[in-house]
Amino acid sequence: MAMNGNFFKLCNVMGPYRNLLSSRFILPSYQPVATLKHSLEERLGLSPKPKRPLSVYFTFMQQLRPMLRQKYPDLKSPEIVAMIAKEYKKMDPSQKSKLEEERKNLYKEYSKAMINYENSITDEQKELIKKAKRDEAEKKLKRMERKSRSQQLKSLGIPTRPPSAYSLFARAAAEKRGSMKIRDWQTNMLQKWKALSDEERQAYETEAAKSMKEFKESMRLWKERMKERGEDESLSLAKKLGSGKTGSKHCSE
C-alpha cells in the first residue's frame, strides 16, 4: 500500500515535471574529459581519456532524480527508478527523437576526441595503461573471490568473529563522520583512539574480550554440531576458507 501511495503522490506532481522536461530537457554539451573523479589515466599521470556521453535515458534520469529526491525524500530508490522509467516511456516521441539525434551528434564529437587522444599518447603509455587495467582486473577478481568465500562461510552457519576494541570505538563514532572522506575519518579515529585514557580504552577492551569469549564458545559448539552430523567436508572447507583474509574473521581463534 505504501508503494501505491507513493505512486499516487508522484502522479500529482509529474505533470509540472513533464512540462519542465519537455521544454527544458537538453543533453549536456559534450565534455572531452572526465572531471568528477580521477580516471585511471589521470592516476598514472597521463592526460585524461575523453568521457563517453551518457545515453538519453541516463541523462533523463540524472536530471529528474534530484527533483524527485527533493520533493519526496522518503521515497526509496527502486520506486524513484520505476517512476523515472515510467515517465521516460511517456515522453513525446518527437521530443525523444530530437534528444536521440542530439546524443548522436555528441557521440560523433566523442569519437573524434578519442581518435585525437589515441594519437596523442605513445606506445609506452598505452602499454602502461593496459598493465594498469590488468592489475585492476586482478584486484577486482580477488575481491570477488573473497566475497565468495565469505558467502560460503555464511552458508555453513559459522559464527562471525566479533569486532576488536578499536572497531567498537570507531563504530560508536560512525554517525559523526558526516561528509568527511573515509581516509581522513579513519586517520582521525586512530588519533582519537591513541589519545584515549587507559580507563576509557578499557571499557571497549572489556566489551571486545567478552564478545571474543562468546565467539570461541559458539565456534566450539558449531564444530561439535558438524562432527555429530558427520559433516567432515564442512569442517574441512571451513578450515581451508579460514586461512583466507575473509575467512579468518569467521574461523580464526
From TrEMBL:
Coiled coil (UniProt feature): 96-154
Protein origin, superkingdom: Eukaryota
Pfam entry (one): HMG_box
DNA-binding region, residues: 50-118, 159-223
Domain HMG box: 50-118, 159-223
Matching CDD domains: HMG-box_SF (cd00084)
Location of region: Disordered: 226-253
InterPro entries according to UniProt: HMG_box_dom, HMG_box_dom_sf, HMGB
Keywords: Coiled coil, DNA-binding, Nucleus
PANTHER family per UniProt: HIGH MOBILITY GROUP PROTEIN DSP1, MITOCHONDRIAL TRANSCRIPTION FACTOR A, ISOFORM B
Name under which the protein is recorded: Transcription factor A, mitochondrial
Record organism: Neodiprion lecontei (Redheaded pine sawfly)
Lineage of origin: Eukaryota, Metazoa, Ecdysozoa, Arthropoda, Hexapoda
Gene: LOC107228170
